[in-house]
């Protein structure tokens, strides 16, 4: 059951990218309207949403791989990184 819970993080990341991009687009629309940027705000807002998501994705992947390595070490203590 614990393994399934780890994979649910990635399901959440899929919906997170949608939410972040939509929020970025709305922020961009507001900036375009406020400053008369003619679409630059929308592009910046969408790019900012994607960048934030990519940072979150890399952190989640790092944590996921670290957890997987720790579980492998617990299961097979002879398969240590120090043995190589």
Task: Tell me about this structure.
- The chain has 84 residues and is mainly alpha-helical.
- It has helices at 2-35, 40-75.
- It has one domain.
- It is elongated and about 65 Å long.
- The model has no long low-confidence stretch (mean pLDDT 83).
- The chain starts with a helix and ends in a 9-residue tail after the last helix.
- The chain is built from two helices and no strands.
- Helix 1 (2-35) runs antiparallel to helix 2.
Low-confidence segments, given as residue ranges, are none
Order of helices and strands: HH
Mean pLDDT: 83
Tell me the overall shape. elongated
In total, how many domains does the architecture comprise? 1
**Tally of helical segments:** 2
Q: Which class do the helix and strand fractions yield?
A: mainly alpha
Assess the beta-strand content as a share of residues: under 5%
Report the count of strand segments: 0
What share of the residues lie within helices?
A: over 70%
* Largest sheet entry: none
| Cα distance spanning the termini | 32 Å
Main attributes of the structure:
84 residues; mainly alpha; 83% helix
